[in-house]
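Troubleshooting: if your tokenizer reports a length mismatch, compare your output against this known-good record of 127 residues.
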Amino acid sequence: MAIRKELTLRLQNSPGALGRVCQHLTEQKVGIEALLLDSSGSLRIVVDNPLNAAGLLRDQQYAVEEREVLLVQLPHEAGALFKTTRLLNSAGVNVEYAYGCALDAQPIGGVVIAVDDIERASMVAGV
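Known-good structure output:
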């Protein structure tokens, strides 16, 4: 587990809205490591350079919120996420939301987990 900065911004529900964000980040060589776009237009992204990305997106008139989240790499096997959530639960840490992906041909998947107490979560995980 690693503590990472997640950026949240609101997009219009229109063609090209996500593409424009991706273009701005690409032009500045900022890599997207995880993202979640929901039907309300809320975009959550974890990038490899959050300081640069947040400034860039604010310059483009996006309202950007920042928060620390856990970025967890898990083996692509049954029960891997359960072990992580059990660890957090045993420390009394509440999972507020999570998103992730594991591809069939890959041995490792990734999950972003937002918790109510990042410090306690990081201590329990040894981060």
